[in-house]
Write a structure and sequence with these properties.
alpha/beta; TIM Barrel; 9 helices; 14 strands; disordered N terminus; Ala_racemase_N; pyridoxal phosphate binding; PLP-binding_barrel
């Protein structure tokens, strides 16, 4: 426990389990008798986000070297869902450019609020409703969560042809979880072949969210299966349409994902801290 420099109340810091790095410098204020109140104190946001970006970047670099891969082949996608636009602006000031959003209206509000930062790269990574594809088609550079041909066709039809083709990752339910979106692995080859022929889209690769309850061995196997599936799809596509992207790995397992071939790691908690709620 420590004292919040803004409120003077007791606070708890959130740490990573393995590395001991501070993920967040936020606290829940408490009254003297221990009764929790509704305000959250946040301090040193700018320095903590900058430090966390540096820490995660070092983890990515080390994991890339340890895997025998070329430096720079893995990119960091900062998952900024539920975070205020000010946190994204702070991350951008530290050099982060790619941000992932799950909720459409929240994302559109942030894109507008940060429109002065013209070099940001917006990725949609959440479930897609087929009746809300138009803003996704035109406000994002990447979509990681396409799992149906109907959605892909709507994105293709609604993408402004004056824009570069929309980068697409096919979401695969690699562990066949009932609660997860994504096509089943056996559906992926045919679906990828169909999407690859849509002119306003550029199919880049595959995305998966493995079952987090798995141990490291099983988790590595899920990542490996996704990489093998990408290789299988590439055998069916012409060379000019070959896939080059594996979007997999998050704050707690990015090293395992990189070891199995990840090219995008989607990191939120290790950058912005655990999402806190009052009450």
């Amino acid at each position: 426990m420590s004292l919040c420099p803004q409120s003077g109340h007791a606070c708890c810091l959130a740490f990573s389990g393995a590395a001991g790095n501070v993920f967040a410098t936020s606290c829940t204020s408490v009254q003297p008798k221990g009764q929790q109140i509704d305000t959250l104190c946040v301090f040193d946001t700018m320095s903590s986000i900058a430090d966390n970006i540096e820490s995660v970047t070092r983890r990515i670099q080390k994991a890339t070297i340890d895997a025998g891969r070329k430096p720079g082949t893995v990119r960091l996608l900062a998952v900024s869902k539920t975070r205020p636009a000010s946190d994204i602006r702070t991350a951008a000031s530290s050099g982060q450019r790619a941000f992932g959003e799950n909720y459409l209206q929240e994302a559109l509000d942030k894109i507008e609020a940060l429109s002065d930062l013209t070099d940001l790269e917006w990725h949609f990574i959440g479930p897609i409703q087929s009746n809300k594809t138009r803003p996704i088609a035109n406000q994002f550079s990447w979509v990681h969560s396409v799992d149906r041909l109907k959605v892909a066709r709507r994105l293709n039809e609604q993408r402004d042809p004056a824009l570069a083709p929309l980068n697409i990752c096919l979401q695969v339910n690699i562990d066949r979880e009932a609660s997860k979106s994504g096509c089943h692995p056996e559906e992926a080859v045919a679906l990828a072949s169909a999407i690859a022929g849509l002119p306003n889209l550029r199919l880049r690769g595959l995305m998966a969210i493995p079952d987090p309850r798995q141990g490291d061995t099983e988790l590595r196997q899920s990542f490996r299966q996704l990489a093998q599936l990408l290789a299988t799809i590439n055998e069916q596509l012409p060379p000019e349409q070959a896939l080059d992207t594996l979007s997999m790995g998050m704050s707690g397992d990015l090293e395992s994902a990189i070891a199995e071939g990840a090219t995008w790691v989607r990191v939120g908690t290790a950058l912005f801290g655990a999402r806190a709620s009052a009450g």
